[in-house]
Amino acid sequence: MPINLDHAATTRPEDAVTDAVCRWMRADAANPSSPYALAGEARRELRTARCAIAQALGADPAGIVFTSGGTESNSWVFSAFAGRPVVLSATEHHSVLYAARAWRCAVTLVPPDAQGIVQPEAVEAALRPDTALVSIHWANNETGVLQPIEAIHTLSQKRRIPLHTDAVAAFGHTPVDAGHCELMSLSAHKLYGPQGVGCLYMAPETPLRPLLTGGGQEGGRRAGTENVPGIAGFRVAVELAQADLARERELLGRMMTRLLQRLRDGIPAMTVLGDPARRLPGLCAVRLPGLSSEQAVAALDLLGVRVSGGAACASRSGEPSHVYRAMGLTETQAGQVLRLSLGRSNTPGDMEEAADAIISVWRRYHR
């Protein structure tokens, strides 16, 4: 079996998630907006899922609006601030950066420090009198670095500027609190749920005009028949993640510690990007001097180890990650980084085998 160290790209749905999706796929079809009894069952599933997600966030269920995933949620946010000044971190996911530009927002980028942290003082310095929105990710999807969202929210509140956070990489892997933002994007497939479903949380005082129109679904906020099977799977994935969050964090942290120690022993020149004290336990980025990430990914794939050189959505561009460049790496250095992301399919034995494979590839190809 291949060893998957690329769970940050996507995760295989849990069996209970697949069962929930299949149950709704096999049931008599019912549009939640229809008036008859069967449709009422679909509406109850939507309410149950909304409540489960809201409980995990410490939010009001009324603030949860289902979407097709993080990208749609992010685009929706910036559509509501089209043409207005916004402040973003330079290490945001492309779905945030590109959405802000596509909606012709006046973008101010805040660089992180060398550890990948977007300091609140830097965000505050970037604010203008007419800044309409601040958007800072909860956790970086390429380094795992956790951002000081609570402190950033405190300063944005003083200026009465809404804070949006893309929490796709964080939700289900670390505690996430909707009380520290006005808008939050989430996706199911990063926490062992189905692909193609997610949600946007919006605080009561931050209603957004719809991005999709043409129907009264989701309280008139997002037109289109709801994906009931996908939403049911999303609910189960969230419930499973919340029930096992502490144990999973501890297990992934121990395995990552072991993997990194083995790699340091075999590749003393290796460096780990980002603040080790502020990082998701199962996700990190390492730089292997003298070995291109493109070459390493291909060679490791042949050895049955899946890794990436950065975000999956940008892996085909051939360009070094904007995240690593923003952290101060040169183009050459940024092209030598591997993202390692652990998940439920991994075992302690995988760490030994994966480390051996990475070390052997580095010794064979580095120059």
Description:
- α6 (149-158) links the parallel β5 (133-135) and β6.
- Helix content is 40%, strand content 13%.
- It has 13 helices and 12 strands.
- It has a 7-stranded mixed beta sheet with strand order 2-8-7-6-5-3-4, with helices on both faces. It has a 3-stranded antiparallel beta sheet with strand order 9-10-12. It has a two-stranded parallel ribbon with strand order 1-11.
- It is globular, with a radius of gyration of 21 Å.
- The chain starts with a strand and ends with a helix.
- It is an alpha/beta fold and 367 residues long.
- The mean pLDDT is 95.
- The longest helix has 22 residues, at 245-266.
H/I helix tally: 13
Oligomer: single chain
Distance between the termini: 30 Å
> pLDDT under 50 segments (min length 5)?
none
**Main β sheet profile:** 7 strands, mixed
Class of secondary structure makeup: alpha/beta
Summarize the helix and strand pattern as letters.
EHHEHEHEHEHEEEHHHEEHEHHEH
Strand content: 5-15%
- Give Rg in angstroms: 21 Å
What is the mean predicted local confidence, pLDDT?
A: 95
Overall shape: it is: globular
* Total strands: 12
Q: Taking strands numbered 1, 2, ... along the chain, how are they ordered across the largest sheet?
A: 2-8-7-6-5-3-4
Helicity, as a percent range: 40-55%
